[in-house]
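Protein data sheet
==================
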Amino acid sequence: MKHNIFLKALCACLLLPLLAAEEGEAPEVEEALIEEESAVDKSLQRTFVIIAPSHEYDLNPHTANFSTEAQFLTGLYEGLYSYDPKTLGPVPALAESYKVSRNKKRWTFTIRADAASSDGSPITADSVRSSWLRLLSTPEAPYASLLDCIAGAAAYRTGSADESAVGISARNPSTLVVDLNTPTAHLPRILCHHAFAAVLPISSNVYFWPAARGALCLPKIHITGMPSMWPSRSFRCSSVTLSPRTPSALMQGKWTGF
């Protein structure tokens, strides 16, 4: 009996606010949310601030290994694929489309015609090829072995073959061809990672302009969105700031060019 009374009371509590809403009276909770939203200064929501642990920060996408570095590098650099912000599955980035051969061992990617860096320099199929070869030739690159599914990549990475043996070729500025050792259905998931992004040279043999040198102390890193790079996308958050708990962590020796 007591159980039935409890259920009836619970139903009444749930139905009364709904009935009031149907009669045109907004529930108190909804009114509170409306007041709270109108009171928030939306300009304060334009910068996403990350309070990160203190450690040496490496912004070389080929050698960076910390998740805090990955948070920034994923925004600074882009590869053939990127992460879906909700599912973390692969979504096209530099790759406009792709085709897989019948034996599933050759992938042909078409690079977006408007692919470019923030300074307007075009990103081509050869930009991706050169970046991957540079990654494979970097001894301290922690994720380079993930490209061993590509024909000749492991041999080149370990120094037993030259780059001509690697199954990565730029057929033309917009077409990248990748030959695999065996069918690799999860290749797009691998290529989401920042280590496989296209990195353009700033000058001869320099591919990264250091944000800090010597005794220079950089208290935080701040990057802003580039809507011109993705005109079809909506940038609700215009900038991101990384603020370490100890600012001096950003002046360590790993902030060097490569």
